[in-house]
Amino acid sequence: METKNVQIKFEQTNFEHRGEPIYEAARRVLKIIRNHPLIEGETWYLVEYHWYGLFENEIWNCHSEKIGSMDNSSLVSEENNSILKLGALESEHFEVVPGIVCNYISKTYGCKIEIPRNSKRSIFT
């Protein structure tokens, strides 16, 4: 029951800038990335590692420079955008963010290729 309440809270979160600097809204997004529970069946998205680093740097250093749109093309097969390249590793080639964060990134920065993945129960828990 507690997980369901948390999920509803995140779904209702509004990331409109409301006149605030973009990095203030983005800082709220980073808090969600760190605190959002992993819910089985929920869709999360891969974000290219280098771009994600620029995104975090912009937020924490309050830069207002343009980092460009998120481009995940280096992570996927040239023939099929839904197939991840062999050897792609989390925290080395990509980071994983909840869907609500990917929506924020797409609206704010743009996104050339979204790479959704559904969370599954780990056999290692």
UniProtKB/TrEMBL annotation:
SUPFAM superfamilies with a match to the protein in the record: DUSP-like
Q: Name one GO molecular function term.
A: cysteine-type deubiquitinase activity
Q: Which domain of life is it from?
A: Eukaryota
Against PROSITE patterns, the record matches this protein to: DUSP
DUSP domain: from which residue to which, for each copy? Answer: 21-124
Q: Which residues form a coiled coil?
A: none
Q: What is this protein called?
A: DUSP domain-containing protein
